[in-house]
Automatic annotation (TrEMBL):
Domain Acetyl-coenzyme A synthetase N-terminal per the UniProt entry, residue ranges: 29-83
Organism: Microbacterium horticulturae
Matching InterPro entries: Ac_CoA_lig (IPR011904), ACAS_N (IPR032387), AMP-bd_C (IPR025110), AMP-bd_C_sf (IPR045851), AMP-binding_CS (IPR020845), AMP-dep_synth/lig_dom (IPR000873), ANL_N_sf (IPR042099)
Cofactor entry: Mg(2+)
Protein's UniProt name: Acetyl-coenzyme A synthetase
Cited function: Catalyzes the conversion of acetate into acetyl-CoA (AcCoA), an essential intermediate at the junction of anabolic and catabolic pathways. AcsA undergoes a two-step reaction. In the first half reaction, AcsA combines acetate with ATP to form acetyl-adenylate (AcAMP) intermediate. In the second half reaction, it can then transfer the acetyl group from AcAMP to the sulfhydryl group of CoA, forming the product AcCoA.
Post-translational note: Acetylated. Deacetylation by the SIR2-homolog deacetylase activates the enzyme.
Gene field: acs
Length: 655
């Protein structure tokens, strides 16, 4: 981490917003003043200004049961009504909500009126299957309009969706379906990726078959969208085609209002243990901050902008910046099903040019891979429609930031680097693009109404120029409300470390520069960040050890130029396997094993077959030392190792 700090410290450039940008920006400096004068009153104003309440709230923040918090608790609203019907009622039904482009090049333009109608039908269809308030629905889909429709239909009837990234394996899907006891799975036959149909339905079938783990069979129906046209197995009692069920449903459906704290969704994210956590988000506070950050941080003007957030709905960014935030504002946005490099590496820039995208929100890993391909590719397209760029998911290195601004943002657009997490629900630390003079590599300042600090191990704020741990010092509207089925884990993971102060511990290292601006330095726990996706070292280790050839495994996140971090595994094989197979062959097998068990994003970049692992006397694997090896650095302090010679053995084996 220290080399990161040194590197970041060299960065001193600043970019003030142009007067033209500042003049039209939604966010102005007085937001900070209003929020500082009365933080809770500020959020209450935002909730009233940005959302429609069926029943107005009188309470703002209730923390009588800390660390649990409630926002706007006695109010009632419909998330779906806020994202759909009210725009139609306001006369904007003809505005395009979704500009969908499939990977093969097919296109659909869906207006707010059409989207509202489709969601009403899907809501009726789900209710027809007996799904209602509080029921869980798993969504395992490609990024197609029906995925958005499915989420909003759940919201409309008060069912709780749990979106599982379509790149996850049958096993990962099964554990999430089981944990939430989902009653319905919504999926597709397949979706398009890299020019081919990537099947999804077989993984659902597999996840629901032979549940030998004693899990109760909760899934009554699987609703399947026809997208890939691939052949699928069919269970007549359980499976239903979307086009039979939803298309024939009535398009009349009045959206009932639910209490502000009604759960909206569960989203599983990796923690430090092997078992993913089901992060719970509720309705009123979540939608307030989702709408607020889309309006002020991303500066969306619904009547004129074309917004494109490139995230998949399987991640929280897709929830807040593809579905709930932009639609709550009534914005027009692009959704694209496929991969950036298909059929050629300029595909994203073709999309920007074709739809006139004005605000692009993406991840540093994508920017770095475009940098690798070279500037000619974007420069061959007309990107002049872009006026604001956003970054999310991991620290953005200054080189990538500057390249993003120069090459994609024609040297002019502001860049907002937005720090947040699945747990925070929406952006927490970011520039206001019309106000803040931005610094490449720094997320900079907490949003108006958000209190964030960098503290030392004892919870004391560090002075400017120093590093420590990032904390949120007061509850915020879109904060997670708990971990599904495990309130203890919620307290333990996020609130135990700074219990005395009542701070939320984010798990990220950070530094305040001389101006007090915040620089994020990456995770301080055993969570890796690969291409902006959170992966747990423990989860991948358990998968490796579950393979019959493996005796022991340790996984680390090594530095990677493109993906930020990459999964590197050190594996001790069972003797019996070593004598019968080549290490190379087994490494190949293990890589695809992990990919099958967890998903392709978890597939180790490198697997090193070693004879020992570095352990402390208490038996803890010293991943820090393995990370040095994986990064090709000189191995650090080994004095706490039980056997200090082990690192030279490992280093020799890796070479
Ligand atoms: C939104 C999202 C959260 C973790 C977070 C941090 C890293 C996200 C960042 C960033 C530096 C940024 N992270 N945004 N680090 N600068 N702008 O990514 O949620 O998948 O839960 O990951 O990602 O380490 O703790 P999630």
């Amino acid at each position: 981490m220290s080399s990161t700090i040194d590197h970041l410290l060299d960065e001193e450039r600043q970019f003030a917003p142009s007067p033209e940008f500042a003049a039209q920006a939604n966010g102005t400096a007085d937001l900070y003043e209003r929020a500082a004068a009365d933080r809770e009153g500020f959020w209450a104003d935002q909730a009233r200004e940005l959302l429609h309440w069926h029943k107005p709230f009188t309470q703002v923040l209730d923390r009588s049961n800390a660390p649990f918090a409630k926002w706007f608790d006695d109010g009632e609203l419909s998330v779906a009504y806020n994202c759909l019907d009210r725009h139609v009622e306001a006369g904007n039904g003809d505005r395009v909500a979704l500009l969908f482009e499939g990977e093969p090049g097919d296109e659909r333009r869906i207006t707010y009126a059409e989207l509202t109608r489709e969601v009403k039908k899907a809501a009726n269809a789900l209710e027809g299957l007996g799904i209602g308030h509080g029921d869980r629905v798993a969504i395992y889909m490609p990024l197609i309009p029906e995925a958005v429709i499915a989420m909003l239909a759940c919201a409309r009837i008060g069912a709780i969706h749990s979106v599982v990234f379509g790149g996850f394996s049958a096993d990962s899907l099964r554990s999430r379906v089981d944990d939430a006891a989902a009653r319905v799975v919504i999926t597709a036959d397949g979706g398009y990726r890299k020019g081919k149909v990537s099947a999804l339905k077989p993984a659902v079938d597999q996840a629901l078959a032979d549940r030998g783990n004693g899990a109760q069979e909760t899934v009554e129906h699987v609703l399947v969208v026809k997208r890939g046209g691939n052949d699928v197995d069919w269970d007549d009692e359980r499976d239903l085609w979307w086009h039979d069920t939803v298309d024939n449903a009535s398009d009349e459906h009045e959206a009932p209002a639910f209490p502000a704290e009604n759960p909206l969704y569960i989203l599983y994210t990796s923690g430090t243990t092997g078992k993913p956590k089901g992060v719970i988000h509720t309705s009123g506070g979540y939608l307030t901050q989702a709408a607020f950050t889309n309006k002020y941080t991303l500066d969306i003007h619904p009547e004129s902008d074309v917004f494109w957030c490139t995230a998949d709905i399987g991640w929280v960014t897709g929830h807040t910046y593809v579905v709930y935030g932009p639609l709550a504002l009534g914005a027009t946005q692009v959704i694209y099903e496929g991969t950036p490099e298909f059929p050629q590496p300029g595909r994203w820039w073709d999309i920007v040019e074709k739809y006139g995208v004005s605000i692009l929100y993406t991840a540093p890993t994508a920017i770095r891979s475009f940098m690798k391909q070279g500037r000619q590719i974007p420069q061959e397209r007309d990107l002049s429609s872009l006026r604001l760029l956003g970054s999310v998911g991991e620290p953005i290195n200054p080189e990538a930031w500057v390249w993003y601004r120069d090459i994609i943002g024609h040297g002019e657009t502001p860049i907002v680097d937005t720090w947040w997490q699945t747990e925070t629900g929406a952006t927490m630390v970011a520039a206001l693009p019309g106000v803040t003079a931005t610094k490449p590599g720094s997320a900079q300042v907490p949003l108006p109404g958000i209190l964030v600090d960098v503290v030392d191990e004892s919870g004391q704020p560090v002075a400017n120029g120093n590093g420590g741990l990032l904390v949120v010092t007061a509850p915020w509207p879109s904060m997670l409300r708990g971990v599904w089925g495990d309130p203890e884990r919620f307290k333990e993971t996020y609130w135990a470390k700074f219990a005395e102060q009542g701070y939320y511990f984010a798990g990220d290292g950070a530094r305040k520069d001389e101006d007090g601006d915040i620089w994020l330095l990456g995770r301080v726990d055993d969570v890796m960040n690969v291409s902006g996706h959170r992966l747990s070292t423990t989860e991948i280790e358990s998968s490796l050890v579950a393979h019959e050839a493996t005796a022991e495994a340790a996984v680390v996140g090594a530095k990677d130029e493109t993906t930020g971090e990459a999964v590197v595994a050190f594996v001790i094989l069972k003797e019996s396997y070593l004598s019968a197979h080549t290490p190379e062959g087994l490494a190949v097998q293990l890589r695809s094993w992990v990919s099958e068990q967890i998903g392709p994003i978890a597939r180790p970049r490198d697997i090193y077959i070693v004879s020992e692992l570095p352990k402390t006397r208490s038996g803890k694997i010293m991943r820090r030392l393995l990370r040095d090896v994986a990064d090709g650095k000189e191995v650090g302090d080994t004095t706490t190792l039980a056997d200090t010679a082990v690192m030279s053995v490992i280093s020799a084996q890796v070479k």
